[in-house]
Design goal:
By secondary structure, the chain is mainly α. The chain has one domain: Glycerol uptake facilitator protein (Up-down Bundle), CATH 1.20.1080. It is built from eight helices and no strands. It has helices at 6-34, 39-65, 71-79, 85-109, 125-148, 153-167, 176-182, 196-218. The radius of gyration is 17 Å and the shape is globular.
Length: 226
């Protein structure tokens, strides 16, 4: 999962996260405009675009940086000693910066004010539990699929996020960098800035629980063929 070049890895993480956020925010705006007030239809469009782009981004950038696009994922790989702590910290900075660029890029495409603050409330125990479960399912998917069949990782990760859009009350942000970026969009995909810290805390907790479970399960599984 380590990048062959630190700078190429950081560029891949920044660009990949920017494109991911532009997709999440942009498809949310497009879906809301075309759905005629039908939130289910808007969410379906948002989901489809996100799943497709995430799959492509992992295929493109996986060989370069590991295609984390997510500080929580980088944290887990650092804890597993698959990624140096310094690299994980730099990845988190690149991911956050990329996400912040992705939001105004989406606004620019739809001729909206570039810089906004979301007014969409996303708070309460149901939302926090949802984010913990969303991050748990995402990280568990990554860790177990990489052990079983790394070639399946792009599809598995994209599908896990797509399912999370629908089975969680929070619509599965599952990513601190994306959460921060979505706070800068007063659109279908937004989240109020004051709700961001609890989301991120829940995401970290869910990720750590997934790591603990994956470690326990992996001790009982045969090693994948070399």
């Amino acid at each position: 999962m380590n990048a062959p070049s630190p700078w190429r890895g950081l560029a891949a993480e920044a660009i990949g996260t920017a494109l991911l956020v532009a997709t999440v925010v942009g498809s949310g705006i497009m879906g809301e405009r075309l759905s005629g007030g039908n939130d289910a239809l808007a969410l379906l469009a948002n989901t489809g675009a996100t799943v497709a782009m995430l799959y492509v981004l992992i295929l493109i950038f996986g060989p370069v940086s590991g295609a984390h696009f997510n500080p929580a994922v980088s944290l887990i790989f650092a804890l597993r000693r698959d990624l140096p702590w310094r690299s994980a910290a730099l990845y988190a900075v690149a991911q956050t910066a990329g996400g912040i660029v992705g939001t105004p890029a989406a606004h620019l495409m739809f001729e909206l004010p570039l810089w906004q603050l979301s007014t969409t409330p996303r708070a309460g125990p149901g939302q926090w539990v949802s984010e913990a479960i969303a991050a748990f399912s995402l990280v568990l998917t990554i860790l177990m699929v990489l052990r079983a069949d790394p070639r399946a990782a792009p599809a598995a990760v994209a599908l896990a996020i797509g399912a999370g859009y629908w089975f969680t009350a929070s619509t599965s942000f599952a990513n601190p960098a994306v959460t921060l970026a979505r706070a800068l969009s007063d659109s279908f995909a937004g989240i109020r800035p004051q709700d961001v810290p609890a989301f991120i805390a829940a995401q970290v907790v869910g990720s750590l629980l997934a790591l603990a479970l994956a470690n326990t399960l992996s001790q009982r599984l045969p090693k994948p063929p070399s």
